[in-house]
């Protein structure tokens, strides 16, 4: 038994004859007669009484009609749900991220979507952490890739991706006193950072607040006197020219490190690190396309971490279609950072 036989059966009942059903369905009468005969053989009962006037239901046919209508309703409902699912999965997903995160993830995300998920359309916007948070709050983006310092539980559902290590970044410049001092080192203690002039963002930015937190927890005051535009690329140009040093994750500068124009030293004692999260607005329902994009973001994060572009510990707690958001960190964990 199949849906075509059910359709032929119900239209024949409605029209009262096989000839009328054939005209309604625009199908040859013998084709309908054959399908109805096959249906009767499968059911083991005659469903119609046939006469020169047309057809009428037998007692078995009346019983079968009730089930046939229910089956067709279920099939149509299933089709509608599947069409809705397909529409959701073919949707546009807007992702907002910081420039440092975009530097390591944007190309991977675009490549994965284009190659493996052509039914999705990815739109990427980049901006400072406070702007990305505002975009998510006002529904201008569907997913925000940001830092734990920007999480607001009152409207965000957060999914941890990676705990990234922080580095002191120095330009590879033989004329720079900074480079001459640091060129043979791979790590640096946090307290040693107080010796250098740093290019740092203000407290409005998540990185600025992270640096302030470490200064407070360690009692080490850093030098923030160097003029800094707040733009990542501009700051890295200043570093390359020997005008100061920056505190950054590998995601922000790995490409320059591979080109040997900058060098990075892992910050230790204490290890300086922070969590990167994917966040959605809990006031809006997540479509299947958004859930799929979160999974792609997790995959891209794992790929970039595995090849050393994004150095840190993977957390990978993005949701499945039926999963609830997971906490980004306990208060005790955050306060220790």
UniProtKB/TrEMBL annotation:
PROSITE patterns: HTH_LYSR. Coiled coil: none annotated. Residues 1-58 form the HTH lysR-type domain. One of its GO terms (molecular function) is DNA-binding transcription factor activity. SUPFAM superfamilies: Periplasmic binding protein-like II (SSF53850), Winged helix' DNA-binding domain (SSF46785). One of its GO terms (cellular component) is cytosol. InterPro entries: HTH-type_LysR_regulators, LysR_HTH_N, LysR_subst-bd, WH-like_DNA-bd_sf, WH_DNA-bd_sf. Keywords: DNA-binding, Transcription, Transcription regulation. Belongs to the LysR transcriptional regulatory family. This is LysR family transcriptional regulator.
């Amino acid at each position: 038994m199949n849906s075509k036989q059910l359709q032929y059966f119900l239209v024949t009942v409605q029209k009262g004859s096989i000839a009328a059903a054939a005209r309604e369905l625009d199908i040859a009468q013998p084709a309908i007669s054959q399908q109805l005969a096959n249906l009767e053989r499968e059911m083991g009962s005659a469903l119609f009484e046939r006469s020169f006037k047309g057809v009428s239901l037998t007692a078995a046919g009346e019983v079968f009609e009730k089930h046939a209508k229910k089956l067709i309703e279920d099939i149509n409902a299933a089709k509608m749900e599947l069409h809705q699912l397909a529409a959701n999965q073919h949707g546009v997903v807007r992702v907002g991220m910081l420039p440092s995160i975009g530097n390591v993830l944007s190309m991977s995300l675009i490549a994965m979507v284009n190659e493996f998920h052509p039914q999705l359309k990815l739109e990427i916007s980049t901006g400072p952490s406070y702007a990305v948070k505002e975009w998510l709050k006002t529904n201008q983006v569907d997913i925000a890739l940001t830092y734990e310092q920007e999480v607001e539980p009152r409207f965000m559902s957060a999914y941890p991706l990676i705990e990234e290590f922080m580095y002191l970044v120095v330009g590879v410049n033989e004329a720079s006193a900074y480079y001459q001092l640091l060129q043979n080192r791979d790590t640096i203690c946090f307290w040693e950072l107080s010796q250098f002039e740093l290019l740092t963002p203000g407290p409005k930015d998540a990185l600025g607040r992270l640096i302030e937190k470490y200064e407070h927890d360690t009692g080490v005051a850093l030098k923030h006197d160097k003029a800094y535009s707040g733009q990542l690329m501009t700051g890295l140009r200043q570093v390359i020219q020997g005008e100061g040093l920056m505190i950054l994750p590998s995601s922000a500068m790995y490409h320059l490190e591979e080109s040997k124009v900058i060098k990075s030293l892992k910050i230790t004692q204490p290890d300086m690190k922070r969590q990167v999260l994917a966040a959605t607005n809990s006031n809006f329902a997540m479509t299947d396309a958004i859930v799929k994009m979160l999974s792609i973001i997790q995959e891209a994060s794992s790929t970039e971490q595995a090849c050393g572009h994004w150095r840190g510990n993977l957390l990978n707690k993005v949701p499945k279609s039926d999963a609830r958001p997971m906490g980004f960190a306990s208060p005790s964990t955050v306060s220790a950072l």
